[in-house]
Amino acid sequence: MQDEKKGLNNTTIVLMICVALFYDALQWLLGFIFMGWLVTIFAGLTFYVWFKTRGMSFMKPKRFATFGGSFIIELIPIVGDILPTWTASITYLALDSKIKKVVGKIPGGEMAITAANNKMIRNKNMAQVNNMQRLTPMSKDKFDERRNKQKVELDKRTESERKEREERYKLYEERRQKQRETEERYGGHEKYNKDLTDLKYKYGTADKKEKDLADLAYKYKDSSRN
């Protein structure tokens, strides 16, 4: 394993965890004035350089995901200020590196770790295979039945929407017809609109421009009849 050149001793691990606790506490305090993100930047740089100087590489997916995920979570307002993400991340990374280093010194320890990892991968792959085997393909009859059911539902929904449109249009035409009949009884649309606008202008709900336009339309219609 050319993963750790110098490695992490017990003193360094304890010191890292204490520094992580300090950064989490400081970020919690600065979070009240919305400045906790500054601590995240300094903490990320500090631990990255610290681990690199101790020979730890972040090219492994677990380490990269743990460190990068902690950095992203700490940048989230309120959530990053409350959760002790740096402490949890640094503790996991340091102890994981220490355990692998100790096991690597034991005869056959590295082989045992490799075998355990391979067994976990095999179990995961077997679980996926079993799940795929439990999935039974849909028969043609069931597929046709589901497709016909969806088609019937779509036809019902389309028919319902068509009826709703027809009802709305019918109500609209009835209101239009009633309005036209009212206007005709009153002397036509222009006279109805003129008198209505005059009434609105009298009570302040219409301005002078609307009144003049209504008067002009009525005069033009009246002159065209003559």
UniProtKB/TrEMBL annotation:
Domain of life, per lineage: Bacteria
Region feature (Disordered): 143-194
Transmembrane portions of the chain: 7-23, 29-51, 71-95
Keywords for the protein's UniProt record, in alphabetical order: Membrane, Transmembrane, Transmembrane helix
UniProt-recorded name of the protein: Uncharacterized protein
Organism: Candidatus Zambryskibacteria bacterium RIFCSPLOWO2_02_FULL_44_12b
